[in-house]
Design brief:
CATH superfamily: Electron Transport, Fmn-binding Protein, Chain A
Number of strands: 7
Number of helices: 4
Structural class: alpha+beta
Number of domains: 1
Strand order of the largest sheet: 2-1-5-6-7-4-3
Helix content: 25-40%
Shape: globular
Mean pLDDT: 96
CATH architecture: Roll
C-alpha cells in the first residue's frame, strides 16, 4: 500500500486542479494551478506541462514541490509534498501523453511531471471548527457559487 489512499485518489481525480508550489532560483515561491493533476499510482501524482515555463524551469533547478488539491464545495482536500521528475522525450513521454488522451486531455503536452509523493496530509477548512457537518458546509458553498453564476454574488 502506498501513501495515496483511495480517498485521496477520489479527491485528486475528481478535482483535477492542483495548485503546484515550486521554488524559484532566487528562493521565492511560485504557485501555479495545473488542471491536469491526477493520481498515477499509489505513490505518484502527475501533471502535464501545457504552458508552464516557470514551473518547469523551477523544477529543473530544484525538484522539491508541494501540491494542494481542495474540493471547493466540501472545503476539504490534501497537500502532497514530494520530488518531481520531468519526462520530456522518448517512449515514456509518448505513453504518458497517450494516457492523458484517455483521460480526456486534448491540449498539446510538452512534458509530463511525475511526482514521487513523500508526505501527504489532509487540508480541512476552519468552516468545520464550530461543529458544522460536511453537508452544511457543502450546502453553504453550493449556494454561494450558484449565486455567483446567477449574478447575485
Amino acid at each position: 500500500m502506498g501513501i495515496i489512499t483511495e480517498e485521496m485518489r477520489a479527491v485528486v481525480n475528481g478535482q483535477r486542479l492542483g495548485f503546484i508550489a515550486t521554488v524559484c532560483a532566487d528562493g521565492t515561491p511560485n504557485l501555479s494551478p495545473k488542471g491536469t493533476t491526477l493520481v498515477w499510482d499509489a505513490d505518484h501524482l502527475v501533471f502535464a506541462d501545457i504552458c508552464s515555463p516557470t514551473t518547469m524551469k523551477n523544477l529543473a533547478h530544484n525538484p522539491a514541490l508541494e501540491i494542494n488539491v481542495v474540493d471547493p464545495i466540501r472545503r476539504k482536500g490534501y497537500r502532497f509534498k514530494g520530488q518531481a521528475r520531468i519526462v520530456t522525450q522518448n517512449d515514456e513521454l509518448a505513453a504518458l501523453i497517450g494516457w492523458y488522451r484517455q483521460q480526456g486531455v486534448r491540449s498539446e503536452i510538452r512534458s509530463v511531471v511525475i511526482v514521487e509523493v513523500l508526505r501527504a496530509a489532509p487540508l480541512i477548512s476552519p468552516a468545520y471548527d464550530n461543529g458544522a457537518t460536511e453537508e452544511e458546509v457543502s450546502q453553504r458553498w453550493e449556494t454561494y457559487y450558484r449565486s455567483l453564476r446567477e449574478g447575485r454574488g
